Every structure is written in C-alpha cells, then in structure tokens.
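Friendly challenge for the regulars: who can give me the structure tokens for this chain first? No prize, just bragging rights.
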Amino acid sequence: MSKLNRKKFLKTSGLSLAAIAFAGGASSYLSGCEKKPIADLGEEVEAVEHPVIVPVTLDPDAASDIAYESYKDGGG
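First reply, four minutes later:
Bragging rights claimed.
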C-alpha cells in the first residue's frame, strides 16, 4: 500500500469531484434533449416582435435616481 501524502490526496479528491460534477452536468444536459413537450399550451403562441416598442417615454435621470434610492434602501 502506498503512503498517502497531501499532494496525492488533493489530486485524487479533485479528480473525484470533477468526475462527479461532470456526471451530474452531463445527465442534466442529456435530459434536456428529450422530445416530449414541457407543457401543452393547447394553442399556438405568437412570438414577440423585436424591438419591443415601449409606449412610455422614460427619463434616464429619474430612473437612475429611483434605482439608486431602491438600492440604498436595501431593495436591490
């Protein structure tokens, strides 16, 4: 039996962790390739045309003030 030193321990545990992470990621990736639909909407859904036209004119200075106040108060 070989002596386990710190370098071998870190190398082995790192490889094991990488293999487990790869296996978990690969399984979730492959499950996304299924042909069954996620949800049946029952009717066709129209795609949104781009660019989306916003009917309201936004003031950049007012929007930045509101965003800053919200962040400062802990809301964002």
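The radius of gyration is 26 Å. The mean pLDDT is 79. Your move, everyone else.
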